[in-house]
User: Fold these one by one.
Assistant:
Number 1:
Amino acid sequence: MRSVGFTNTQLSARAAYLLRGNDLGTMTSAAPRLYPHMWSWDAAFVTVGLAPLSVERAVVEMDTLLSAQWGNGMIPHIVFANGRDGYFPGPARWECSELAFNAPRSPQTSGITQPPVHAIAVQRILDHSRRQGRTTRSVAEEFLDRRWGDLVRWHRWLAHARDPQGRGRITLYHGWESGMDNSPRWDAAYGNVVPGADLPPYTRADLSHGADASMRPSDVEYDRYLWLVEQMKRANYDDAKLPEVMSFAIEDVFVSAIFAVACEVLATIGEEYSKPRSDIRDLRAWSDRFRSGVAAASAERNGAARDFDIKAGRWINTETIAMFAPLLCGGLPRERERALVKLFEGPRFCGHPDLKYAVPPSTSPISGDFKPREYWRGPVWPVMTWLFSWAFARRGWTERSARLREEGLRQAQDGSFAEYYEPFTGAPLGSMQQSWTAAAVLDWLD
Ligand code: GLC
């Protein structure tokens, strides 16, 4: 392990170089080999990294993503790059343009969604454009005028199709929709997903890209992931049918908190740029509803937020980074929030004495579920560190935010821009040259 890292200037130059290398023209691949297409929440974070480099290019990234939006308003979790293979399940497996009346014919997409962080990206585009001349400012403003309606439709779809009963929490029908694919949060719910004998055969592509199989989800997990896709296909990806047909349905507290804060961000943008009052009113109402929904999911004792397994009718108690969802959006009573901050900074998370850097691991090292090298079961994901540092800054917690940034940057000093890191040794893991890791670094160093 290198002990002397790059200077900040070198590091941001390398991060910019990385994004340029992963640029496919009008989209940035999530990573060069393992993820050769555009992922929805990756694209938003990538936009955050592109905005200080080029507002124009950042706008293109969001335009590409939004051009794949479905008729019902959903932003799909993958937009497939034309003519690129190398990922499974690809368009031929999802069959969205054939089966789903809401899906666009082109570009091709997956049939599920991902966390709604996009308002953050839009805000960054606008913020950076204000530092620039008139031409760049008008590129950003034209983008907002062109896409405002789409952004509101996206949020409206989440608020309606994914919270039909107005509980203030987003329902997910696939663990991949959480962005934390194999988090222990979903283990119990996946236990109830029993792949049918008629699950069409498949070959995984993720293992043939040099990825270490022991760090990736297992084959049993993969069968379940694909069985859920099969269930959706058989229902033609129809929002109205999913609640009935899916064997996996959970209310995700982390996605709900992101949604609460994203609605607030979008509402503020709407006010600043004189968008329709009714849109702003809806966004504020959704923000309030979801903030309350997140608070209602948090334990009285320590504030830790829980997901809800709809199929089993019970709260999910795992010790993962999602416990801290209320810190993203606020809304907890003061004492409870204080307890939750203490948990975040204490020995069960960022303050664990053996951590190489004081950043939140995806699963608590104290938990029985903890696996230091396994994807969302323990490793540190730099983009999550970024999200918390962003949210803390927004909430006025300047020092706390700066601490995460500093530690996140120390971790990034190795210059690998890894997808995730071993929490104790700091070893880079998963895919290297991961776009959103570079984006986080670029924003931190801006
Ligand atoms: C993995 C992650 C997901 C991410 C994708 C592309 O599937 O779990 O959150 O969007 O890779 O980076």
Note: The chain has a mean pLDDT of 96.
Number 2:
Amino acid sequence: MRVDGRAMRTIWPLDDGAAVGIIDQTRLPHEFVVVRLETLEDAARAISDMQVRGAPLIGATAAFGMALAMRAGADDAALDGAVARLTATRPTAVNLRWALTRMRAALAPLPAARRPEAAAALACAIADEDVAINAAIGEHGLALLRQLSARKAGRLDILTHCNAGWLATVDWGTATAPIYKAHDAGLDLHVWVDETRPRNQGAALTMWELMNHGVPCTLIADNAGGHLMQQGRVDLCLVGTDRVAANGDVCNKIGTYLKALAAADNGVPFYVAAPSPSIDLSIAAGHATPIEERAAEEVTHVPGRGADGRAQLTRIAPAGARAANPAFDVTPARLVAGLITERGLTPARGESLATFGAPPH
Ligand code: MRU
């Protein structure tokens, strides 16, 4: 997508593979800062600290992290150590395991001397594939949005949660790819953007993206979605996913489940953009997904900018308040109208998912 008129991805190789460029997402929307990752540790920290986040981008960053690791040492111990370090960064998005499994399978049979070059090439290929996957999701989603728009004969109002935008992927986004394509094709649409407490990925990132691209959008408090659906002001929900289980259960950012319940109660179709690397056929149902528990401070405090423009962290709970912070939840397949994959639309049901086929994990 474009930033100040310049086409950009969220991650790219620098200096013949000696480093990797990323956009520091913890600084958006206030500052646009590019950071250089030079080591395995840089890549692991960028994922843990959420300078990069979103399931597909976590996978791509892990792949580039492997490539950086192999430059520093590529024997079997280094290979295993790099996989273990990156695996430990975040537990929920299955794209991380998918990318690391793929990197290990490609690198392990090679002599150590050939691993650095092969790792760099495969990381670039994984990034390119992500762009192609999301572009294809965009085309299939566009067809769906056209249908819904024709049925309504008026502005299509879409509700999204978290950031499943281009910042969460290498480019295009998953949930946003159909939105960008539909907007560019002239479809009359508008997006309700959940703020997405506690980290506010909707307010900070999705709003920044959509506004940059000129897509009409309105920020709402997380709790407003159900009310808007009751009022008939939401035509569909469209979200991303961190992991789809074999039975079609969808794990995504905390709060997604409540939106799906409200959507079901109000007859609003609830769609999930699901690239194949996010589909995990190795778990039977969503309850087996490891749910990341993040720091209590993300709930008790809100980061922002003061009147002087300086970053500040504001406490909104009494000093010493205990807080729980599960970062993801699971939406049962029965609440999902369909998955938009790169191979087309499929019901969120076991048999169809298996036919649509996920890559090996
Ligand atoms: O904690 P985050 O910001 O990494 O969570 C991101 C989400 O939950 C996204 O909706 C999901 O990764 C899909 S991204 C295309």
Note: The chain has two domains: 2-129, 141-353.
